[in-house]
Task: structure prediction
Amino acid sequence: MCGIVGYTGPQSAITPLIEGLRRLEYRGYDSAGIALGTANRLFIEKRAGKLLNLESALTATPPVANSGIGHTRWATHGGPTDRNAHPHVDNEGKLAVIHNGIIENYTQLRADLEARGHVFTSETDTESVAHLLSDLRKSHNGDLSAAMREAVKSLRGSFTLLAIHADQPEVIVGVRRNSPLVVGLGNKENFLASDVAAFIDYTKRAVELGQDEVVTITPVGIEITDLEGNKLVPKEYEITWDSSAAQKGGFTHFMLKEIFEQPKAVADTLLGRINADDHIVLDELHLTNDEIKSLKKIVVLACGTAFHAGMIAKYAIEKWAQITVEVELASEFRYRDPLVDSQTLVIAISQSGETMDTLMALRHAKSLGARILAVCNTNSSTIPRESDAVLYTHAGPEIAVASTKAFLTQVIAVYLIGLHLAQTRGVMTGHQVREIFEEMSELPAKIEQILETVEPLRELTRGFKDSNSVLFLGRHVGFPVALEGALKLKELAYMHAEGFAGGELKHGPIALIEEGTPVIAILPFGHEHGLDEKMLSNVQEVKARGARVIVIAREGAEVTGAEHIIRIPSASSLLQPILATVPLQVFAYEMAVVRGNDVDQPRNLAKSVTVE
Ligand code: AGP
Result:
């Protein structure tokens, strides 16, 4: 997820661009850059790191320009370096492009363009678009809008693109597909941005763009067309948010915004991950097929929520790839004498890529000869840098301390690894892998369905605000979900909460049940061992002792003994965590709100724990 902004009008463009990028830094801060449209040439400045680095590079007075584009990056392809920072330009340095999203077919595009003599200077997918647009603009007699319309027809993936050319600097052209772009309508000035936060201080008149719509802005007006060049009527609306709310997309808290971003985060993490031959594509994996076939076991290292994703990995990878998976708290593994060697694959899961416990455990495993695969949401952070291979989740920046979308994408990532290992080790066929991948591709829509029922769930939660403790029960892959639900409630509502394996209840924890104890039971999605019936027996056991039971159950499942049932869409039993976790995130969020806590920055916690 990156932040993009464009301006054309009577002002010096540098101010609305930099101020716009500042408002969008929450969307990514690996690098920042601008292209200013001056007569017959572009002024380009870009720097790795936060916006401040770009601003200090601009202290020497930049040229006066009345138009330009700006970008703040969340790196996907290519590390956060000056060279990979946007904007990217063509070989003449006269056309600049900025991009939010993923161009799935960029490697083929790049090969074709290099064959046509284009010289590339970065590792990004975006640069291919700059060279492609440069060729197409020439073949369209300098019409940048027509060039954009044609370029989009050969792009696959999700993207928002802005382009500017030195020959017509007052013209900025944009397009979107599965990635946001909004127009700001000013007085003899116009804006383009990833979201209204970038220009809300200049204008509250906005126009939302639809899929594959191309917009051209100049100081005197805007034009929107489809890819065939047919003009479309702009749908103008009034922005009602203030600038703070705008950065949260109108949500009250970043956490709620990130809960609602989960469909797209899951979709983006799946994007381009299977090819036409039904092979899982994990191009950053850097493990040869022979290395994968020679593996004797897998050890997952992680902390907190990431550890819960690792627990789910065990169920999925052992079932699909039929290889032993051990899941270890990084802070414990670090001080043991684990049986790890060159035939061990260690999977280090970390959203931030900076968690010291996980980093030290990874180093310990590496010293014992293990191969390290990082699953990480932060490009080029320390953990991926010290690993042999990496699989990046594409959740985009997760601002709230309580991890939500990163967790779901970590689970998706370990599912992809499990399928890849199974296929490479000859345990699963391409058809079997395709079937599971197709079902995973349905998950974003199913998460959307759950999010449509958020309000009744938030109201239900408020009824438990005075509880002292909440217990969570799960079985099979629902057990890590129970642990995750309990962790969310602890860290957000400051309540005692505990997750149990349902089968463990009778071995002690049931003594905790008293009149009115809230218990949330996650009903397995049907299972060859009849685990749902066993969970319903757990429900009866705790209800008989006075518990108030909330059951998370798939549509159509028979449920007895519950005071409340939260229905979620069904899926295969191993994919349940992606769906069952969402109501628990909302439950914890609402409990924090109703108890007046700081939702995005809960007490005593940090987003990245860089101490042991
Ligand atoms: C999750 O809500 C917490 N913020 C915490 O448990 C977190 O998952 C843990 O600190 C690991 O962080 P990482 O994924 O960045 O390594």
